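cache lookup: miss for this entity combination. No prior model stored, computing from scratch. Input as submitted by user K.M.:
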Amino acid sequence: MNDFSPVTLRSAALVGNPNAGKSALFNALTGARQKIANYPGVTVERKSGRLALPDGASVELTDLPGSYGLDATSPDEEVTRRVILGELSGVDAPDVLVVVLDASNLEQHLVFAQEVIALGKPCVVALNMVDLAERDGLVLDPTALESALGVPVIPTVAVRRRGLAELTAAIAAAPAQGPAHPRAKLDEVERRMEARAMAEAMIISESVKHRLHSRADELLLNPWLGPVFLLGLLFIVFQAVFAWAAPLQDGLEGLVGLLIDAVKGAMPAGLLRDFITDGALAGVGAVVVFLPQIIILFFFILVLEATGYMARAAFIMDRMMAGVGLSGRSFIPLLSSFACAVPGIMATRSITDPKDRLTTILIAPLMTCSARLPVYAVIIAAFIPNRPVGPGGVIGLQGLVLLGLYVAGIVGAMVVALVLRRSVTKGAASGFIMEMPKYQLPRLRDLGLGLFQRAWIFLRRAGTMIFHVTIILWLLLNFPRAEVGKDQVDASFAGHIANGLAVLVEPIGFNRDIALALIPSMAAREVAVASLATTYAVASDDEDATAHQLASQLKTHWSLPTALAFLAWFVFAPQCISTIAVTRRETNGWKWPAFMLAYLFGLAYVFAGITYWAALALGL
Amino acid sequence: MDSQTPLMTLDALPLRRRAQITAVDWSALVDEEARRLRALGIDVGAQITVSHRGIFAGADPLAVQIGRMTVALRRVHARAMQVEAL
């Protein structure tokens, strides 16, 4: 480390333990202009932005994943280690390391800080969240820490923008100061003892205040009140994602509808106009319709994470999830998937263990999402008699069947999780070892930024693919053109594919009409209803009337076993391009979405078949 | 018995009772879990209290207080740790 020569400052990185307040500090330092991408070859998020220096220049600031040490245990920590050491190809090692510490948990955070500083690179320490330390009754002496560590120590409160100018100045000055005075390399146990000594030496005074978060935990982790609170909260979240999003979705769809009408009015009829309205604009509609759910769900998830409650929810639900080889962290993403698997899969980012996360992504489509409801509703209305069952007759048979379909999805997901955890996603579970962060008030600015980033990632990454596939489906349905007087769908590629599919699905009781409906409903499940309506020439502007007419048509064309098999198919079938697109985005490749498609189609086929033949055998 | 120093595993430690970890059976834990626990300072010599337990079967998981941190862990981890109540 003696051959030191001053480096020009091009990049800096924030490093520190999880829960050191790195992200808030990063947001405060870089503002809204951030780039989010994945590190090459892994699904670990790389967040970077520009930090303006006092002299007017700017450097790239990266927010490295939270880490407990260079001895990595998770993929996140592996990335942090490799970036710091300059071992990650395609990513330059940062010129200055900004070690972020939680001022109220120094004896823990200084363990990793020493390890980073001992590397001998230019370092600055941000003594973050000093306000929370003060809230806990701690008065600290930063200069004592500065002399103990041998690097500049700047007290900061990211959320109140305190100490940011001083920190930026220290980052700018760090390369000229050269590496810190050499520190002896200590092992983990020695560093921990040293950390404790340093932390104690810098405490000026400590008044024992009963800490706010331990009092909140008395209530929120109470064995009886905790789950009740969680249930109430989840009810609100679920209600919001399910119900509040609906008018917004209708509004967006209406807007796209207006646009389509405008194009129809402005252009002469023809293939080009159809392409713009039914292909391109319908594709836009298929993408934006997810935005309200994504934004509402992520609003709650970001609030739950920022306040520190998410870790408590995971704690409460862990035992149940452990039963199928997952951990408490999988609970919220899976629950969200009842509204829609797309935001649910995006929410798996809070699961740190990669095997847990992958398993959760793979089973998320089995949660009965809201798009299945229209399909279920039409088939149930057509084939299941609306008669009361059970004692007292308060339960309707139709409702019971609907409940059964939900339960089938949940049981299927649990069994699949168990099987996956013992096969494809086998491996040492991270179990459930998790630091519970302190309770904090969320900052509106950070929330807004997080929401914007999630929405943008969805629109740009998943959106483009959903858009493309919608157009491809349109092309398949519209080419080659039918002769005049012939049915376009029969003449199209999709029609020919349906002929082939019909042979495949015949053993599970599906006719060609169903095979044909399955193709466009790859775009979204609920399209199956519209598509069947077209096939059976049921046309009405009113959705309810369509459903009603369709039901009576279905009854004449389908047998009961076929209808039941169709329901069973939709419990499992991955009839949703958006889910596939998001899975590709979140798993960074085609391998897992392909696996998901294969296993879900396999399950759908087998269970539809079993349902069909069992129903036949029972004489239904 | 309290007048002596009662030895037990962490999962049996009564709530809010301060204790010191005297031994950890690292071989009972998956390597990654062992490293994560050590990274959180849960190691021989650490002082610890159990502050919360889950309600479902087997009072699992546990929330323990170590230093200024609350850490959630499962009962299988706690069972690998010998503690001595202080």
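stored under new cache key. The first helix of chain B runs from residue 31 to 39.
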